[in-house]
Amino acid sequence: MTDIVESVEATTLLDELTRLPGREDPYPRYRRLREISPVVRAEDGALVVTRHADCVAVTRHPKLGHLPSHMMEFVRPDWADHPALHQLFTSVLAKNPPDHTRLRRLVSSSFTARRVQALRPRIAQMVEDLLDRMSGEVDFVQALGFPLPVNVIGELLGIPEPDRAQFQTLVRDWTQVLEVITPEVLETADPAAATIREYLAALTAERRKDPGDDLISALVAAEEDGDKLTEEELLTMAALLFAAGFETTTNLLGNGIVALLRNPDQLESLRRQPGLAAGAVEELLRFDTPVQLLSRVAWDDLEIAGVPMSGGDRIVAYLGAGNRDPERFADPDRLDLARADNAPLSFGGGIHYCLGAPLARLEAQLAVPALLARFPRLALAGEPGRRDSLAIRGYTSIPISVG
Ligand code: HEM
Q: Which family, according to the similarity comment (predicted)?
């Protein structure tokens, strides 16, 4: 057994990651953290793991999960009064079995692989339409990175087209609670979460009266062994699907395109061989993952990387760090679209493995090669603007010229 390392250098590195400029390029800091120790303690007491194998262990360990809502009262007594926290902590993302199993089964019966694959021609068409509108210099985020995923998930859920654009800011404001939660963050995040919920409540009421072939109508009807989602559960699920459906994918596309433009040899290899797309998307997910970390609470005493942890400890797995672990990936800081045996941690693992992974992969596999094929002189036209967050990593703007 090894003791948890209390290192001033590690505390400083973790602190630097909480804000810019430290989080602009977190990877050298992750490397140093891994060298200090596989498990380091952050200033707030959380235990941080940075190796690939240990991140996998965190997502699968039977003694790790989420704080049950009755325990949340002790940690944050006012959580249920904050719409931003309530909407997150009552979602499938923060549930434990058997509640998690039940919610996940009900949503999986509607959000099926078949429903996703059926979208392929429609997504390809949306990509072509967006590319048609691009000329000269444009902001990639506004031209493709945001509109593609928001329209795909919007269409899937049955959210009318003119209503979709407003959610870019609303979801960005709400998901600030995935970072450090301060009173200022809640001041912005709460009204955003409340607006999203009101909107979805009105839409769901309409779908109850007049069902369509969209996912919200399917969730209204979803039934397993006589069990159904309550209204409350349905709204929380719809909000999570909608937000997770575009926020993260926008960043996969944005981070991916910046990585390719900064590695022209790799960009050219994909342009020459669009058949590489599936492997390329895995590598883009690994190289600069849109979700950099996830956290769990220990139910009981356990060990990770030979380090003892106690019941009640909060454990944070830095997926972005595990994705650059040299013990798992040869030459991890190199973008290599043909990398063999790739296994990015980017969609998490275990029972909470990302429900939208097939959809996100499909969108990126269609959009990235199409963009490269359409614009042979694609280039960065300025410095991309970094979004000031770490859990969700992405850009606010990416100036490109399409020639
Ligand atoms: C590149 C895009 C995406 C990334 C990087 C991503 C990442 C993740 C990660 C890391 C988790 C696990 C979190 C944890 O264990 O604490 C997760 C869960 C989840 N994701 Fe995604 N996601 C993406 C796209 C999507 C899309 C498109 C959807 C929906 C359409 C979606 C819906 C969900 C849901 C519902 C969960 C919760 C699953 C559960 O708790 O059982 N995600 N995602």
A: Belongs to the cytochrome P450 family.
Q: Is 244 in the pocket of ligand 1 (CB under 6 A)?
A: yes
Closest CA to 351 of 64, 159, 3: 64
> Can you name the residues that pair with 298 across neighbouring β-strands?
64
How far does residue 398's CA lie from ligand 1's centre (Å)? 24
Ligand 1 centre and the CA of 354: distance in Å? 4
Closest-CA residue, ligand 1 atom 15, reads: 352
- Indicate whether residue 94 lines ligand 1 (CB < 6 A): no
- What kind of fold does domain 8-140+253-401 have according to CATH? Cytochrome p450 (1.10.630)
Rg (CA), the chain: 21
Residue 68 has pLDDT above 90, yes or no: no
What residue ranges do the domains of the chain occupy?
8-140+253-401
pLDDT digits 0-9 by tens, 73-111: 777 888 989 999 999 999 999 999 999 999 999 999 899
Tell me the torsion sign for CA atoms 280, 286, 291, 297: positive
First-to-last alpha carbon distance for the chain, in angstroms, is: 59
